[in-house]
Every structure is written in C-alpha cells, then in structure tokens.
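Hi R.,

Here's the chain you asked about this morning:
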Amino acid sequence: MTPEEARTEIARLSAEVERHDQLYYQQATPEISDADYDKLFRDLELLEAAHPELASPNSPTKRVGGQPIDGFDQREHVVPMLSIDDVFSEEEVHDFWTRMVKNLLDAKIPMMIEPKIDGVAASLIYRDGELEAAVTRGDGSAGDVITENVRTIPGLPLRLGADAPPVLEVRGEIYMPNDGFAKMNVAREEEGLATFANPRNATAGTLKLLDSREVAKRPLAFIAHGFGQLEGVEIDSFSQYRDLLKTLNFPRNEPVWYTDTVDGVLAAISELDEKRHSLGYATDGAVVKVDSFAAQQQLGATSRAPRWAIAFKYPPEQKETLLRDITVQVGRTGTLTPVAELDPVHVSGTTVRRATLHNQDEIDRKDVRIGDTVVIQKAGEIIPEVVKVITAKREASSVPFDLYDYVEGKCPRCEQPIEKAEGFVAWKCVNFACPAQASNRLKQFVSRKALDIDGVGSIVAEKLVERGLVEDILDLFELRVDQLADFNIGTAVEPRMLGEKNGTKIVETSLRAREAPLSKWLYGLGIPQVGESAALEASRLVETMHDIPGSELIDKIRERGEKDTWLKANPMRSKKVELSAEEYTERKAKHDEYKPRVKELNTELEDYAISPELGGVASRSLLEFFRSDSGQAMLARMKDLGINPQSHNYRPLAAAAADGDSAASEIAGKTFVITGTLSQGRDAFKARIQEAGGKVSGSISKKTDYLLAGASAGSKLTKAESLGVAVLSEEAFEALVSGGGGDQGEPEFKLEG
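And the predicted structure, written out as tokens:
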C-alpha cells in the first residue's frame, strides 16, 4: 500500500470507527456486532502502526491511552471559567428573579433549566475541527491540560468534520455513569482497595492520573452544556448553541426546560427533582440560566460568578426504616463485607432493601445494631448507606454487632478461619481454596503480568469456576483439549462452545507457563500485599518456590518490619498519650527487647539491600501463605505435577558480592525514576532495574537515588536537579548495570536532539 493509499484507508477506517462510536455510546443503536467493531478497530491500529507518520493524535485508537506523562502543564482560559452561585430555597430563587427583572426591566425573561451534573468541569478546545486541548477549570483563570486523559473518553468527538467552526471551545462536565461507578467500587472493595465516596471523587481522582492507559480503564463520560471561545458562527442563545452541539454529535445535557416566568422555573426544578434519579448519572441540583446572550451580557458577572445563572441544590433525601438483620458477604478477594438487610423503603427514586455497612470499624463508629431504626440515604445519590441510628427507638435488649462473633470466626463460604491484618479494617478469608475467591484468583493467575495463559479471559475464567471445571488454579494444568473444545461459555438457552482452537491455545500456553519465572508465579497467586515489585524482590532472595516457607532471610525481614513498626507506633513518651506506670513498664520492657533486636537485624540484612517493596507486611503475608495448610497442599500438588518455579533474578547481595557482582550492589535497594525518550520502552529498563533488586517510582522525591533521563526530559529532570538527585544518561546507566559504575563522580547526562 502506497503512503497515499494508506492515508485514504486510515481516514476511511477512522470515520467508520467514529460513526459506530456515536451509534453505540450516544444513540444506543449499534449497527454492527462487537466482533466486527473490534476488527475495524484492529485494522486501523495495524495500519497506523505500519504508517506512524499518518496517525492523527485524535485517532479513535488513542482512546486506549498512551505513555505516562511527567506531569500536567497549565493553560490559561481565554474566556474565564466562572463558577455558579448556589441557592437552596424557593425564596432564594424568587430573590434571583427579582434582581434580574429589576436590571432587565422585563417581567418575562426566557430561561433554560437543566440538570446540574455532579462531575468535574472541563473545557475542550477544537481548532479546525480537531481536538487541540482539554483543560480543567482550575482556579477559573487557568487549569491543568488533561488532553491525553480526555481522549480516552468513549463517545466524545475527537474530530468534528468540515462543518465545525474554526475555533470552538466546548465546556461541560466529565463524570462517571452510575452503573460504571458502582461496578468499579465493587471491584475495588473486593480487591481490598479503598472505595470512592461518590462519582465526583472518582472522576476527579481519575483525571489526575498521569497514565492515560489507566484512565482508559475507568468508566468516564462527558456532557456538554456551555462554551468559551467561539469563532466563525453566529448564535444568539443557549438554545441555538444546543442545536450546534447536536449537529456536531456532542452528548448534550438532557432533559431541558424552557420558561419565561419564575413559577415556570420553580415547576421545572420540582419536575427535575422527580426525573433526575432515572438519568443514569449523579445530579445534585438544577442549573437555571438566561437563554439570551444579549440579556446575559446586560446582566454581567461578579469576579467569580455570572449574575444570569444560579444552581438550585437539592437536599439529600433521607428515610427511616428498620434494620432487620446483618448478613455477611464474601468478595472475590476474600474480604468479608457486612450488609444491612432493611425493611423496603423508597429513597431517591428506587426501593432500597439492602445497604452496605463496609466493615466492623464503620459499624462500631455508627453503633449499628440488628433491630435498630436507621436513617438511609444514597451516597452520591447512588449507593444506599446507613447515615445514622435513631437510638431513641432502640430496644433495651439490643447488643452491639461483632462480625467475628457473628460468623464464629469462620468464612461463611468455606468455613475456614478468617483474619484481620494489622493496620487493616477488613476481615478476610485467607483460605487459598475458598470458592468465593476462585474466579478472581484465576483471572490474576492467567493475566499477562502473571502466567500469561492465552484464551482464559474474564468470561472463560468465571465459567470454568462456575461450572466446576476449575476449583483450584492448578486444575488448569490438568485440562485437556477435548474437555475445553466442548465447554459451554454461553448459556443453556444460547450455548457458545469454547472450541478446539481456543482449547488448544489454553493447554499449550499452560504447558509453557510451567516454566514461568518465580516472580510471575508469586504475583499470579494473588497473595495479599504481594504485588509485582514485592514478588520480584522475593524472587531475588530465594532460588525456588519450595524454598520460601523455610527462608530465614524472608523471616528476618518479617521480624524486623513487625518489631520496627511496633517501636514507631509506641513511643516511650508522647505529648498525645499519658502512660500509666504499669503501661510504661510494659512498653519499656518491649522497647528493651525490640530495639536491640531491630538493630541486630538491620546489621544482618544490610548487605542484602532489601527493597522496601518487600517489607514486614508483605514478608509476613508471603510466609503465612506458604506455611498455611492450603499453601502446603498447593506446594505438594505442584511437586506431583512436576512444577517448581525457579528464580530468574536470584542475586542476594551476600552471594552477589562473593561472585564479584558489583552491579547488584549498585542497584539493589535503590530507587530509580525514568523519563524522556530512550532507545527502548520504559518497561524494558524497569524490568532490568527490578531484576537487579532496584525499585522504579513514577515521581521524583528526596528518596530517589537515580533519574534515568533520555532526550526531551521534562519537569522530572528539573526537579531532580533541584533535589540533588543523580541524573544518569542511558550510557551511564548501562555502565552501572554492567558493573562498571563504581565511583561515578559527577553524574553523566547528555541530551540529544
């Protein structure tokens, strides 16, 4: 294909993908199947990869995100992004109306009323029909440039076509749809991660991420409702602007009311209050604004807000109901979550029968008991929550709820003991074979970062567990092609067989996975607190998986971490806590025992330069898992299967020094940050650093040891220089890795281009 032919085909494919995006995300009327869409998208990706010079920054393929950035630039708003004054009562709406009538000398004022979306305000600047930049509100005068993150939002036009104005600044709200937010929070809670309080917090946190690939995984959406710069088109009102947005395929704020009286405004506010609960996204009010631009200009603005608009804020709807029982659910990561079982009550547009109580600490804080009368509301208008207990209506015989006693110290699913790690609020089932966790463990086990077993995606993993073909992750290694070929991953009504080709792929890659390095296995097992970095460090310290349960080195790391944590949390003297004589004596005895032991352990571990990624908590979790009955059973079965994962980076410092490996001593335990354009991708350099025992961070701090900087290094280089962090060119890094670093003197740095 010639360059000109490629250009034409890229344009055609891009237009097709964008058209189907509009049909799917905005109009909910898809014309093709997911498989056909995926093929179109893949064809475009391959063509752009073959002709990168022809790929547009606004290609629909950019929705998957790109390389992480060093930080957000700032950009001034040509037209300031003002806030809107809030009002909370009908009286304040009347006051607003009276002021406008007085200034405009007209009792009839055309108004527009629309939902106030609870999201993050953003401005999208299009020049000649192409998205040039996306900027947050910031302080109203300037905001962060978040273009790469905004490009990942499905359904948002990246190119507007030939009919677009030369300059168009579309302002609106980035938000999370209710369904996507709820699913994301459930997934986070099951993974033991902190959940977001509401969709707005989740959206704001997502837009601050520096890696647009991570942003692309979050369920963001955009709705347009205003504008800034506008050139090359004449419009006189917001209603005309909405027509322009429709022509350009922008998702618009809906529903909208038009009226010219204050009674009409109040009626619209009331009607919206009834309808907003079915909109699919969080709303916290109604925006009331003058439709005519001429009238807006006459009314003017203060330094922070226009005089022609207000936001009527709805109070959260709260209802009383009876808490009949508390049940306990087991999530896919083993977390036990208490759930309030309620007498049905209608709140914010839906009937609520259950509400999460999160954890025991939350129950204790609110003193929630079975049989209590409680006040319910929807957090962020979405997730039912218990706000408070009406203690005046409590029965005298009620007793505090204790989750551990309620489940008798056992997991409700597998009846194995539950545990709560120090510093954590949730009780967890740590039984590796717990059926509630099987599908989630399997998904991590087969993921690309772990064993990388082809053909086992989320749906296949869930079906394998659901239908009993895989009860334990090691069952994967005994599956046969004939079993998988006829395996139904659909439903009884609409069966869909996995097929021989996919079955063969799973079996063949499972055979390959037997030889995967130890670090991949450790990460893939999904052991709590043992992520990629901790797995790599553990792999550096032991030769095989079967060595872990008896590892004295890892046991010393565990002991040092636990004792040091206790010492830091329990000072002998504190301005905040007065110790009794008895408490002082007990604490001093532990200090006298722990302090010299920590010093002794520090001396013993010094030569190993242990990465902080494998601290006391991760070490304890690792040892507890492999020393547990389920861990020992897994090791025994692996031995029967002939599987014994080997370390690919075994170089504990003492052994490395004996072998004359100076590279290990230079890198192990050190923190690196990577920036700029290098000869290989960042992941390649990250892997080499981690294999040698180093740690790679995403941001510069005083604790950073080295900055590996390529061409076009940006703000990280400036910050490194200001903090006195050693800056390495790629050549200096290679010398360090090869063991020739030694005494480097002045750090070598050279930018090219």
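Confidence is low (pLDDT under 50) at residues 654-663, 742-753.

Let me know if you need anything else.
M.
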